[in-house]
Input
Amino acid sequence: MNKISIVGAGRVGEATAQFIAYKDLCHEIALLDINQGAAEGAALDIQEVSPLIQYDTRLYGGRDYALLQDSELIIITAGLPRKPGMSRSDLLASNVEISNGILEGVMKYAPNSMLLFVSNPVDVITYNAFLKTGWPRSRIFGQAGVLDSSRMASFIAMETGYSSLDIDAMVLGGHGDTMVPMLRYTTIAGIPVSQFIDEKKLAEIIERTRNGGAEILALRQNSSAYDAPAASVAEMVDAIVYDRKRILPTVCILEGEYGHENMAIGVPAVLGKDGVEKIITLEMNDEETAMFNNSAELVQKDLELLKQL
Output
């Protein structure tokens, strides 16, 4: 890919630029931030690492949306961060307003780009962008499930002592408290995780996964997670840049899949050079269906709030 832009040069945005540059996924990265000097400073800092890590990505930053010109993919991390005790939904009004301002710049300078949202609440902001732009749903998607799945896989590795390289976890649904852990599709070297961990401990791992971001926020106090979210974004970008056709849990616009429409929520999707190339419909049992529908219902409540803004 020639050019990727990242809007929001805070900790998540800067870490995302680092991972993308380190993996040499594009020729140019443009960083944008409302705060004077923030994007320029982050871009310069990452650029100065290139001789050490050995990558040729060129980075630059600024405040002008004209920097988005010719972007093939735009990653939006801008928004107010959560503070201790806040839910992702608490951020809805403020971050939708921020997102709308960004979308004006995107539609003016990069009308043919793909949009990858990270800002919370990601389900609502992704769907809002779909409504505002009128673009095909293949070009508008969000990151949530890759991070949640990685967190669950990490906790499984910590519990079992087995290599994280052999663990595949699948988490769908809304990002946060209503995420849907798909234990039947979670394996260690292809073996169902239930063969290794009892039901009680799995329930504890699921609960810890649901509160993964809040746990880090509570420990740090002054910052939410940024390394794991950024690495998760880079994983999705890698699938798109190299047209890998990877199946990754992605916040997608639904048009009848899983019995839902007119909303965005985390489902398995094929990611390739055209963005979301296909949504994979999993067979769910009654328990999984109930959890997914509950998650979708809560996302829908946030979407009702969106209509009032």
Observations:
- The chain has ten helices and 14 strands.
- The mean pLDDT is 95.
